[in-house]
Design a protein that fits this description.
The protein has 2 helices and 11 strands; from the N terminus they run E-E-E-E-E-E-H-E-E-E-E-H-E. It is mainly β. Strand 2 and strand 3 (24-32) form a beta hairpin. This is MORN repeat-containing protein 5.
């Protein structure tokens, strides 16, 4: 079994780096997620115990107490908090600037693109992730950003 310091790649693309004991995460270690986020903790027999901290891909650290990011009073994205707001008319639609280009007819559901015709979710490299059930389908249609259905162009006043 694995012992000492090392790394372990899970089939999901997540990687663990840190202390191992008897084949389990044990001691200080970090999970690195494919989307860029990470979770640092002290582990005991494969279970995180003390000091668990999640950091999003953009560097924002999650806090379970006094979490003020994107609350009812401050709706800025983290990149806007760090870099400031853009001038009027150049608003950000996502934390990424510029935002991802969504394939025609699809939605950006946070971990990939969703095609409501096929009900398939693919990651941002267009690899299959999962099929959406009825609840997830409804949630995505109701809340997620969709690719433009039609092109728009500036029409000067006569």
């Amino acid at each position: 079994r694995m012992e000492g310091r090392g790394s372990y790649a899970l089939p999901t693309g997540t990687e663990y780096r840190g202390a191992l004991r008897d084949g389990m995460f044990h001691g200080e270690g970090e999970l690195l997620f494919p989307g860029g986020g990470s979770y640092r903790a002290v582990w005991h027999r494969g279970v995180p115990t003390q000091g668990g901290k999640y950091t999003f891909a953009d560097g924002l650290e999650y806090k379970d107490k006094k979490w003020h990011y994107c609350d009812g009073y401050d709706r800025r994205f983290y990149t806007e908090i760090c870099s400031g707001l853009k001038p009027a008319g150049i608003s950000q639609f996502t934390n990424l600037d510029p935002p991802r280009k969504i394939p025609a007819g699809c939605y950006d559901c946070g971990d990939g693109f969703y095609n409501p015709e096929t009900r398939v979710i693919v990651d941002y490299k267009l690899r299959f992730l999962r099929n959406a059930d009825d609840d997830e389908h409804e949630w995505i249609i109701r809340t997620c950003r969709k690719a433009w259905d039609e092109t728009t162009e500036h029409k000067p006043k006569p």
